[in-house]
Target: DUF2156 domain-containing protein
Amino acid sequence: MLTFKKPALEDQSWAEPLLYAAGFGSCEYAFSNIYMWWGAYGIEYTQAEGFFVSRSIDGESAIYNFPAGPAVDDLTALRRVFDLLREDCRALGKKFVINGAGERQASLLRALFGDDIQLQNNRDYFDYVYSAPKLAALPGKKMHSKRNHIAFFEKTYNWFYEPITRQNIPDCLAMNEEWCRQNGCSTSESLQIEHCAVKKAFADYEQLGLRGGLLRVDGQVVAFTFGHAISKDYFDTHVEKAFGDYRGAYPMINREFAKTLQDEFLFINREEDLGEEGLRKAKLSYKPELLLEKYTVTLED
Model:
């Protein structure tokens, strides 16, 4: 029987190499994301047959992420770990569900289980993936409005960009509190959850190996962003916040942070829009290289 546990910082040393080795590119495979959000979604994990496997319980379903590890394309190894997951699910008396499976994982599941699987995608959970060099340069006519907003910001404000460090995290936390006050966190459950996740990330920022940057105007933090590598090609941006009354702050923090990543990563994953119309419009306006389709997969026992 598998024994699952709640996320803890000391697990990063074994979990992150397995997640990284899979090379999936979707936001579910960043250990820092799992650590930030586990309290909200009840995420637990374990190591099985050389794979990182996670689960959460939602009503009548036990929801597992596709196993991650260096042998992810080995069908024999995958079958062994799926046998363990299905045994775990039977012991719980739940319906077996795999969440966040991209096309690569879906192909492996088809090879393993054929017609026994049912796949359903949900546009709200597709990841937005961008070219890192393009986010840093914002080239072409389609990015003209972004460049205009950035030009306004540069000319109007006494601004400075700097990486997030232990010394300036308190300034980011203060900005996060004010952002929440302005955006009604107290009346929004989802914003309250995000607020707690951001605080958790900053509390363990260095230990998690997070990377980020902030913008100051006249010394005050008006925007910040941070994230973590998912694989050798993909960086995942977990959070981006800016004060809306500073025109150009969002495209500015986006561009400045992308500049620091463009020589190391091919792609930047800016995660899902969760069906929020404004967020979807904003993410599409940056012209993603691809929308990383993800399936919810049910497996007949």
Observations:
- The chain has eleven helices and 13 strands.
- Residues 9-126+295-299 form a domain with the Aminopeptidase fold (CATH 3.40.630.30).
- The chain has two domains: 9-126+295-299, 129-271.
